[in-house]
Amino acid sequence: MHPHPPEELSPPLTEPPASQSADTAPPECPPASSNKLVHALQFLVAPAGDYGIAVWVFLRLLGLCHLIAFASLWVQIDGLIGDNGIISAGQWLEAVSKQLGAHRFWQTPTLCWLDPSQSFRHTLCLLGVLLSLTSIIGVATRLSLGLCWLLYLSLSMVGGVFFGFQWDALLLETTLFALFAAPASWKPAWPRQTPAPARAAIGALWWLAFRLMLLSGAVKLLSKDKLWSDLSALTVHFQTQPLPTPLAWWLHQLPPAFHTASCVAMFAVELGAPFLILCGRLGRRIAAAAFCALMLLVALSGNYCFFNLLVFALSLCLLDDKIWLRFFASREKKPCASPTESTPSKGWLNLCWRSLAGASLLLFLWCSVLQTLVPLFQWRTVPPWGAAPLRWLAPFRSVNSYGLFAVMTQKRPEIILEGSEDGRTWKEYSFKWKAGPTSRSLPIVAPYQPRLDWQMWFASLGELKHNPWFSNFLVRVLQGEPSVLALLETNPFPEKPPRYLRAALFQYKFTNAETRARTGDLWERDYRGDYCPPISLK
After folding, report:
1. Domain boundary at 362, 396, 430, which?
2. How far apart are CA 374 and CA 510, in angstroms?
3. How many domains does the chain contain in total?
4. What is the DSSP letter of 427?
5. How do residues 113-138 score in pLDDT, each as one tens digit?
6. Which of 156, 282, 447, 495 minimizes the number of CB atoms within 10 Å of its CB?
7. Percent of the chain beyond pLDDT 90?
8. Is 515 part of any domain?
9. How many beta carbons lie within 10 A of that of residue 501, not counting itself?
């Protein structure tokens, strides 16, 4: 079936029609190049009729990712960036205002400029939860997701180091591209009633899945890390990743041959499967299956918040409606409009939206191409012809480069927080999810993200002077700030804060099967020194 009905061909005229004199020249035909451009544009904006249900499923899962992100942040926000939190968002906004002046609205786009108070940040979380629910239901999907993008951008802008994760950036970029595929209708619809997205919109989602996976594999090899090049990275990954699950301990015990084979399979998915997206429907189906299988295995072995669900949702866009009809045939109401049946509105509002959306999508795609070429070709700087648009869009955190674990962490240092009244007897604070007591079972916390526990893993890989937020954290604990202490599992000084506080550095590693059977411990740890020497408020 052709995407457009063939133009009707009329036989050549042997004589001018009656209404035209013989000496009047016929109108000139438009150039062939112009016709090709028009047909190309018509093809891009024409509905992708075979992927309407796929986008319907994707949009619901994207709304679910937003719901998880807003809800999990809401219960932590006071301790992380509250007025008396580890990082005071209000004080940060005041400092930025003094430094940037009027430029702050563009350089740091956030709704918190309207109201820097802590209660307003709670309001943003509440609105994010409500709008996530409306997008899941399908009420005003495009508007709901657009506002979710704005709210999440606003919170991530004032979140500092606690929003420096790749899945936060991926959520913003995925939502941005999803706006072009989301229906403009205000009412929810069954899957087969949902209008098919434009070809350019579904293509943008495929492109995002392509470069996310390709870059994830490429950066591992381009980093020239020995563990990746000799395929031994997974021999240490399961015990050195931030928050391993119970299955991670068992996977770590498997022989090196299994880890090598798993590493080869991972590279095959990340470097090979993305190109199957270019190989027709069958190729896209295989790529989607490979991506989803990889995300499932990653989710079973590590707690990566909503990242796996988000990539899973993006991968489902590769499946055409012939696959989805097996699940939604019982609720069939009305088939999605085919490319020849769709009749776009001729109103000027629709024309303005199409023009603006098309120009914006081209700009975002162009910048995303640059963000892909820079790490692949290891450019030190962006070429002059691409620097300007990237610099212009950078504050919105919605066109990004990706690549997790480019350099594999070979050891697992852990920061253990201890308090004391006399400087001699020390009691240990316990975090909710990160490694602490050697006998404590490994957690299953995803898709919830304990942002402090995650940041503690990053802090342990560096030094105190490179993590100023950690000093603020120690001060809040010494002050006995309730919102910060609520982020911890135990407080050994419930009546009043300790006089002294220190951070010790330990080296952790998984026990073997024999040691675990004998002692019940999952971890072994060795003391390596002070991360922060004893401090006091006075």
Report:
1. 396
2. 37
3. 2
4. E
5. 999 999 999 999 999 999 999 999 99
6. 495
7. 76
8. yes
9. 23
Please state, in angstroms and rounded to a whole number, the distance separating the CA atoms of residues 316 and 290: 11
Going by pLDDT thresholds of 50, 70 and 90, the confidence category of residue 9 is very low
Using alpha carbons, select from 42, 48, 336 the residue that is nearest to residue 197: 48
In whole angstroms, give the CA distance from residue 297 to residue 225. Answer: 23
Note the pLDDT of residue 11: 40
Do 171 and 304 lie in one domain? The reply is yes
Tell me which residue range forms the domain holding 295.
Answer: 49-337+349-396
pLDDT over threshold 50, residue 515 = yes
CA distances from 156 to 130, 163, 183, 303, 513 (A): 18, 5, 26, 21, 42
CB 138 within 8 A of CB 111: no
Q: What is the pLDDT of residue 338?
A: 43
**Percent of the chain, pLDDT > 70?**
86
CA distance linking residue 51 with residue 323, whole number of Å = 10
Q: Are 357 and 180 in contact (CB under 8 A)?
A: yes
Single pTM value for the model? 0.89
Helix (H) or strand (E) holding 417: strand 412-420
Q: Tokens 């026990």, residue?
A: 511
CB atoms within 10 A of CB 484: 22
Q: Is residue 433 part of a domain?
A: yes
Distance of alpha carbon 281 from the chain centroid: 26
| 270 inside domain | yes
CA atoms of 519 and 511, how far apart (whole Å)? 10
The answer to whether residues 133 and 227 belong to one domain is yes
- The phi and psi torsions of 501 (rounded to 5 degrees) equal -145, 140
C-alpha 57/C-alpha 43 separation (Å) is 24
Residues 6 or more apart in contact with residue 115 via CB below 8 angstroms: none
* Beta-bridge partner residues of 430: 490
Structure token digits, residue 294: 């990889």
> In this structure, are residues 337 and 195 in contact, taking their beta carbons and an 8 Å threshold?
yes
